[in-house]
């Protein structure tokens, strides 16, 4: 396996439109990194540049100790799994798995083997090694019984396993995945996510994965790279991105349902007490928790308060860490073990996620009270969108 290093990598097209803007990323040996963002954010373009399928406009890409800017894709020691499987319809599963290895064989001339016994011996050994690698990959992916089938005889999940297997037999330095699960239904996507994570732990391989689905990113990644408009917004572990988003975009993009946002103003008293005021509420924040040096101006300062739906509780908490909101329920979305309650407070729509048993008596049109755990709240500068760091995070 190998490390992957991107230094100030950019990609612009002839029209001058910048698809990727000065991306810096270091992927450690054996790490699973996921690039995630909305359509058009530059994540697939970045992956294709690593693979050598797109030329760089600026910057350098290294795989291991080698700069690969001018290295052909076939010589980069990478394997790529595509969204559309890309299986050969006229070959069975075994032949699809071995196709790339067969093309790379050093000893494959049948005519020379007739007259050269040494060549024939090498040819047989090479073929045996390919068979071993194919059968090993099939066993790892649980598709041994499918080796004789044609692609048209396989389900979507089985085809995707074959596509992964074709990369696996290569034993590359780096695995690249370009939205490989987007063609599968929800149940199969969940199963394949689990299988990919188990596979990564077994191989300890370097993997770079692209998706627009933040649930995939959260469940698969060691680290997540969130992108927007060709710019990296944040690189961190799933837990850090969820709990400490770098800006308002990351906070809203990561998480289902998305983070609740309340626009308001922040004022500071002489004793350091912070008061947050919005159209729907006003309450005191613990002043010693926030670093306010990054906020410009004096007096009232425009900020956005963010709170995750699960931190907006249906039961009123009267502790010093909580503030309450009262609003009208406009919708309830039930998912079995939990439910999302959508309510409106003075024209602001908010979502609370709660266990099912806490929501059974709630009906649309009811007035209900929610409590906010202020220790879990986030503050964002309304001008820049950047998160205002909590003092505990500044170390």
Number of domains: 2
What is the CATH class designation of the largest domain?
Alpha Beta
Order of helices and strands: EEEHEEEHHHHEHEHEEHHEEEEEEEEEEH
The residue fraction in helices comes out at 25-40%
CATH superfamily of the largest domain: P-loop containing nucleotide triphosphate hydrolases
Structural class: alpha+beta
Give the C-alpha Rg: 26 Å
Please provide the count of β strands: 20
Low-confidence stretches: 316-321
Distance between the termini: 34 Å
Task: Estimate the strand proportion.
Answer: 25-35%
In CATH, the topology of the largest domain is named Rossmann fold
Name the average pLDDT. 87
Largest sheet: 6 strands, mixed
CA-based shape: elongated
Counted by DSSP, the helix tally is 10
At a glance:
By secondary structure, this protein is α+β, with helices and mostly antiparallel strands. The protein folds into two domains: 4-245, P-loop containing nucleotide triphosphate hydrolases (Rossmann fold); 257-394, RNA polymerase II/Efflux pump adaptor protein, barrel-sandwich hybrid domain (OB fold (Dihydrolipoamide Acetyltransferase, E2P), Beta Barrel).
Structural description of this entry:
The chain is built from ten helices and 20 strands. With about 400 residues, the chain is of the alpha+beta class. It has two domains: about 240 residues, P-loop containing nucleotide triphosphate hydrolases (Rossmann fold, 3-Layer(aba) Sandwich); about 140 residues, OB fold (Dihydrolipoamide Acetyltransferase, E2P). Helix 2 crosses helix 4, helix 2 runs parallel beside helix 5 and helix 4 packs across helix 5. The protein is elongated.
């Amino acid at each position: 396996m190998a490390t992957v290093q991107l230094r100030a990598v950019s990609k612009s097209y002839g029209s001058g439109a910048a698809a990727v803007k000065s991306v810096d990323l270091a992927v450690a040996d054996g790490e699973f990194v996921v690039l995630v963002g909305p359509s058009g954010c530059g994540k697939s373009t970045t992956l294709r540049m690593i693979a050598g399928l797109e030329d760089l406009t600026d910057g350098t890409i290294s795989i291991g100790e080698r700069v690969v800017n001018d290295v052909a894709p076939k010589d980069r020691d990478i394997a790529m799994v595509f969204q559309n499987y890309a299986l050969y319809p006229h070959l069975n599963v075994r032949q699809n798995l071995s196709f790339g290895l067969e093309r790379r064989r050093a000893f494959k001339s049948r005519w020379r083997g007739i007259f050269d016994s040494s060549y024939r011996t090498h040819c047989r050994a090479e073929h045996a090694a390919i068979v071993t690698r194919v059968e090993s990959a099939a066993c790892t992916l649980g598709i041994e019984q499918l080796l004789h089938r044609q692609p048209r005889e396989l389900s979507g999940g089985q085809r995707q396993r074959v596509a992964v297997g074709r990369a696996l037999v290569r034993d590359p330095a780096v695995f690249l995945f370009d939205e490989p699960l987007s063609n599968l239904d929800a149940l199969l996507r969940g199963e394949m996510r689990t299988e990919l994570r188990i596979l990564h732990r077994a191989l300890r391989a370097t993997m770079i994965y692209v998706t627009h689905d933040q649930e995939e990113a959260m469940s698969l990644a060691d680290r997540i790279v969130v992108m927007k408009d060709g710019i990296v917004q944040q690189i961190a572990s799933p837990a850090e991105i969820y709990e400490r988003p770098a800006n308002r975009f990351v906070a809203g993009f990561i998480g289902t349902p998305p983070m609740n946002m309340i626009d308001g103003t922040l004022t500071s008293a002489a004793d350091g007490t912070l008061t947050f005021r919005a159209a729907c509420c006003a309450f005191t924040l613990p002043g010693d928790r926030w670093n306010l040096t990054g906020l410009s101006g004096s007096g009232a300062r425009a900020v956005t308060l963010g709170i995750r739906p699960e931190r907006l509780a249906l039961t009123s908490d009267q502790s010093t860490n909580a503030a309450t909101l009262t609003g009208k329920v406009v919708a309830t979305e039930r998912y079995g073990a939990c439910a999302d309650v959508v309510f409106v407070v003075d024209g602001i729509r908010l979502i609370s996620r709660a266990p099912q048993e806490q929501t059974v008596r709630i009906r649309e049109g009811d007035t209900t009270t929610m409590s906010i755990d202020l220790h879990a709240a986030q503050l964002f500068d309304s001008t820049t969108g950047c998160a205002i760091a909590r003092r505990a995070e500044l170390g």
